[in-house]
Structure formats: structure tokens, C-alpha cells
Amino acid sequence: MSETVLLAETGRATGSADARRMRRDDQIPAVVYGQGMEPISVSVARRDLRLALSGPAGMNTVLDLTVDGTVYPAIVKDMQRHPVRRTVQHVDFLQINLDAEIRVNIPVRLEGEAKDVMNENGLVDLTMSEIEVATTPKNIPDEIVIDVTDFTMETTLTLGEVALPSGVEAVGDPEWTVVTVLTMRTPVLDAEDEAAEAAEAEAAEGEGDAAEGDADAAGDDAGE
């Protein structure tokens, strides 16, 4: 479990103009909420938030969110970004119980070299970049690593087949495809296909010209 301290301040104004002014001062409007507590409007320094989430757990970092001296174990539940600049506009912090199960999305990373796939001009394709899991905050993995070394052209890895750490359970249909293997077209095959298509088109055009010539000849005979 990755854990770090993040300071937050209360007493911020909640209007749109005030929020814009805060962002200009590199303060980000935020809210803290959770079971059994009233939501608290807070603000956090942009730099502090960036540093807090810069570790290996990223958005799944378990925070000691300190609000006016009170510490709330929390994670980032939602982060709103500017549609163009992609800067953080607002953050939702969820207070958590370190011993209670929560659901989070964990990034997936492929490792290894699938030589059998490469030799067949195939491509290992990651179809799920994140996997939702249910676990306690103490057991949240930084990432899910899948070794593709032994993959072949026939390999398909489903959600139910993904190896997960003890105490971590995948959420979703076990038959969902997580990793598959694609067959890539080679330049030689592409050239052969293009040549075949061109030959077919030329043959069809020749047949059309011949039919047109026959029709013209028949017309001439009828005119006589």
C-alpha cells in the first residue's frame, strides 16, 4: 500500500468565480466525503497533490488527508480536468476504512517477449488497460503485471485467468478478454492481394468491353 500525507484547508468559498481565482493561485477546489461524515469543502495546493500522486500507486495512493489537524484516510475518487488544457479543476476525496473492502481500477502492464507471436508476424494486444478489483486499501496493488513470454498465436487471456495478489479479486465477467493476439498483414501479402485485385478488375473490364463490342456488332447487323 502506497501512503502519503496531503494537507488540505477548509473555509474556501464555493462559487464559480472563487474557484477560478483559487486555480489561478494554484489551489484546487476539492471535497472530502465518506460513510458517516458530512462532506467537507476543502482546497489543496496543486504542487502538493501532484507530488502526493507521483508515486507508483498513482491515483490509488492511500492518503493521510490532513484537514485542519484531523487526518482522514482517503483516496482520490474522482478528478475533473479542463477539457482542453487537461489541468486539474476539482478533486473528490473518499474517506476510507483501512480494513474495509473498496473497489479501485488498477493499471495493467505487459512484460516479456512473445517470440512465438513475433515469429508468426503477430501482435500481442492489451484490450483492457485497467482492471477493476475489490480489496482492502492495505492490499491495493500498484499495477497488475502479465507475462506474455509464453503466448502463442492461439493465446487469449480472460479476466478470470489473470493472476492477482492474495486478497485481491477482479470485478467483472470472468470471460472478458484482457489480452489477445492479432494477426498482422505482411507487405508481401498486401502486394499480392493488390495485384490479384487489379488483375480481377482488369479482367472484368475486358469482359465488359467485349460484351459492349458484341452488342455494337449486333446493332450493326440489325441495321443492315
UniProtKB/TrEMBL annotation:
<keyword id="KW-0699">rRNA-binding</keyword>
<dbReference type="InterPro" id="IPR029751">
    <property type="entry name" value="Ribosomal_L25_dom"/>
</dbReference>
<dbReference type="GO" id="GO:0006412">
    <property type="term" value="P:translation"/>
</dbReference>
<dbReference type="GO" id="GO:0008097">
    <property type="term" value="F:5S rRNA binding"/>
</dbReference>
<dbReference type="InterPro" id="IPR001021">
    <property type="entry name" value="Ribosomal_bL25_long"/>
</dbReference>
<feature type="domain" description="Large ribosomal subunit protein bL25 L25">
    <location>
        <begin position="12"/>
        <end position="93"/>
    </location>
</feature>
<dbReference type="InterPro" id="IPR020056">
    <property type="entry name" value="Rbsml_bL25/Gln-tRNA_synth_N"/>
</dbReference>
<dbReference type="Pfam" id="PF01386">
    <property type="entry name" value="Ribosomal_L25p"/>
</dbReference>
<dbReference type="GO" id="GO:0003735">
    <property type="term" value="F:structural constituent of ribosome"/>
</dbReference>
<feature type="domain" description="Large ribosomal subunit protein bL25 beta">
    <location>
        <begin position="101"/>
        <end position="183"/>
    </location>
</feature>
<keyword id="KW-0689">Ribosomal protein</keyword>
<feature type="region of interest" description="Disordered">
    <location>
        <begin position="190"/>
        <end position="224"/>
    </location>
</feature>
<dbReference type="Pfam" id="PF14693">
    <property type="entry name" value="Ribosomal_TL5_C"/>
</dbReference>
<comment type="function">
    <text>This is one of the proteins that binds to the 5S RNA in the ribosome where it forms part of the central protuberance.</text>
</comment>
<keyword id="KW-0694">RNA-binding</keyword>
<keyword id="KW-0687">Ribonucleoprotein</keyword>
<dbReference type="InterPro" id="IPR037121">
    <property type="entry name" value="Ribosomal_bL25_C"/>
</dbReference>
<dbReference type="GO" id="GO:0022625">
    <property type="term" value="C:cytosolic large ribosomal subunit"/>
</dbReference>
<protein>
    <recommendedName>
        <fullName>Large ribosomal subunit protein bL25</fullName>
    </recommendedName>
</protein>
<dbReference type="InterPro" id="IPR011035">
    <property type="entry name" value="Ribosomal_bL25/Gln-tRNA_synth"/>
</dbReference>
<comment type="subunit">
    <text>Part of the 50S ribosomal subunit; part of the 5S rRNA/L5/L18/L25 subcomplex. Contacts the 5S rRNA. Binds to the 5S rRNA independently of L5 and L18.</text>
</comment>
<comment type="similarity">
    <text>Belongs to the bacterial ribosomal protein bL25 family. CTC subfamily.</text>
</comment>
<dbReference type="InterPro" id="IPR020930">
    <property type="entry name" value="Ribosomal_uL5_bac-type"/>
</dbReference>
<dbReference type="InterPro" id="IPR020057">
    <property type="entry name" value="Ribosomal_bL25_b-dom"/>
</dbReference>
